[in-house]
Input
Amino acid sequence: MQSPSLTLGIEEEYQIIDPRTRELRSYITEILEGDHLVLEEVKPELHQSMVEIGTKVCRSPAEARGELVRLRGMVMDLAARKDLRIVAAGTHPFSSWITQEITPLERYLGVKQDLADLAQQLLIFGTHVHIGIEDRDFLIDTMNVSRYLLPHVLCLSTSSPFWMGRNTGLKSYRSVVFKNFPRTGVPPVMESYASYQSLLESLVRTNSIPDGSKIWWDVRPHHKFPTLEFRVCDVCTRVDEAVCIAAILQAVVAKLWKLRRDNMTFRVYPQTLIEENKWRAARFGLDGKLIDFGKQIDLPARALIREMIEWFIDDVVDDLGSRKEVEYAFRILDEGTSADRQLATYQRTGSFEAVVDQLIRETEEGVKSPSPSEHRADGPAARPGEGVSDGRGFDLGAPRASDVTGELPA
Output
C-alpha cells in the first residue's frame, strides 16, 4: 500500500462587506472583472456576495499559512479597489439570504434550478481542507475512522452564531443550514473504494448528480484529486485558526497511516452516533459536552479535544513539523472561537454592526496587521499536560487504546 503524501490544500469562502452599512454586497463579478490572472486563484461562488480562494498544494501547515496570508491579502486588495471589505465567518450576522443575488454563471444558475429556494438560502461560508492520500482504499479507511473526530474539529472552528439578525443559540448555525441540502452530513461507512465508486456510479446513472462534486458530505473523496476533503468546518475568522485546523487534520491522517502500517485501525462508529456529537458541537461548541461512545458517557468538549491533541496525534506532529500550528488549538480552548467572540461583542454592545467591525479586524489579523500570537512571548496559551490529570487513563473520548483493533487484512 502506497504511503500518503499528506499534502495540504485549503479553500476558504469569504463575505464581501460594505463597510458603511456592514451589509453583504453583491459585487463579486465586478471585483474580478477583467482580471484573468486573479481568476486562477480567486473565484466567484453561488452568491454574488461571496468569494472563494484556494491555496496551491502545500507540504506543511507553515507553507499553507503563507499561502492563506497571500490569498487573503489579494482578496482584500481587490475588494478595497471598490471600497469594500472582506470577512471570514460562517454566516453574516444580519444580512438576509432573501435579497442576495445568485452569481450569473451556468454552474450556479444550475444549482438554483435544481435546488430552488434551498440554493438561495445557502448564504453560508466554510473552510475545506484537502489532505493528499494516493491509495484509494486507505483513503476510504481514513474517511471511515476520521468521521469520529469531525465534531471535535467543528467545535474549534465555530463562527456562525447569528442568522438574519437573530442570536440563534447555536455556535455553528451554518451546519444547520447546510443540512437542508441533499447528500450532506456525516458520510455512511464505506467498505472500500469500490463500494464508494459503485454508489457514485448509481447516482450518476440515475441522473441524480453529474459527478462526485455534488456529494457534499462533511468528509469526502475529492472527485478529481487524490485527496480526502474535510468540509465540516465553518470558515475560520483568523488565519491562525484555519492553519491550526488544517494541521490537526493532517496529523489525524498521519496517525491513521502509522496505525495502518502496523495492521491496526480504530473502531468505526455508526453515522447516527457521530451525527449526535455533531449536533452537540453545532449547538454548544466548546462549552458543551461530547459523547464518548466507548464509555457511553458524555464529557466536556474541551477535555475531549485536549485528548485528541495530547494523546491521539501527539506522536506524529513533530515528524510533520507542525507542533506550533497544532498547539494553537490550546489558545482556542482557552479564549474561545470566533462564535464565542462574536457573542461576547454583541452582549457587550448590543450592535450587530460592532460584530461585523470586529470580524473585519480579525479577518485581517496576520494579513494586514500582526497576529496577536506573534506578540506572545510564551507561545500557545497552554501546553500538553497542563490542566489535565496524568491519571486520566485516556478515557476522555478521543479514540483510545481500547478502540484499537487488529482486524485489518495484512
Residues 374-410 have pLDDT under 50 and may be disordered. The chain has one domain: 8-253+266-276+335-373. The first helix runs from residue 28 to 32.
